[in-house]
Amino acid sequence: MNRIITIGREFGSGGRELGRRLSEELGFAYYDQEIISEIAQRTEMSEQYVQSIVEHQPVFSFPIHIGRSFYPAPTPVFDQSMAVYQEQARIITEMAQKSDCVIVGRCADYILKEHEPFRMFVYADMESKIKRCLEKASEEEEMTDKELKQHILGIDKKRAKYYQFYTGHKWGDKLNFDLCINTSRTIIKEIVPAVAKLFGN
Measured between alpha carbons, how far is residue 50 from residues 2, 13, 37, 42, 165 in Å? Predict the structure, then answer.
């Protein structure tokens, strides 16, 4: 069976960078935005539209994870959200079956649970997340610290709702992960070699 690492992360924690650097260190395939591109190709929706669906919880506020027998009356928006999630699940499963890989976000830890992935969650304190966001922001994207904090909290709230909606689990719950990494006041590239040693490298 292929070795699979899934990474959930708080916005601004550096989880995406950690995933990319870890995949390079281990020689694993890396999947992140590629998943959105593949969904767009298969569904003939624009990448921006797919991204907006993936980033937001569908219109119903209660969980509807796989196996549930009760479904609300469908709507076009709801149907499209479910179709994108199902396509995402198919693509993530195909990617995991191809080779050793690192997959960032998108409920991959839940979708691939039968493949027994190594599940990581990356988080940081707000000060560190704001600092990372400021370092990566272009001049057009400049926000005050207060605005950035609200932006970060807003994205994480959406991620939490999305994850809970499709999985029935609490996003970021340490009991659902094999390793939780606090990247507060750390340089991502300096901790990657230590993490890679967990996988024999």
Answer: 28, 24, 9, 11, 17
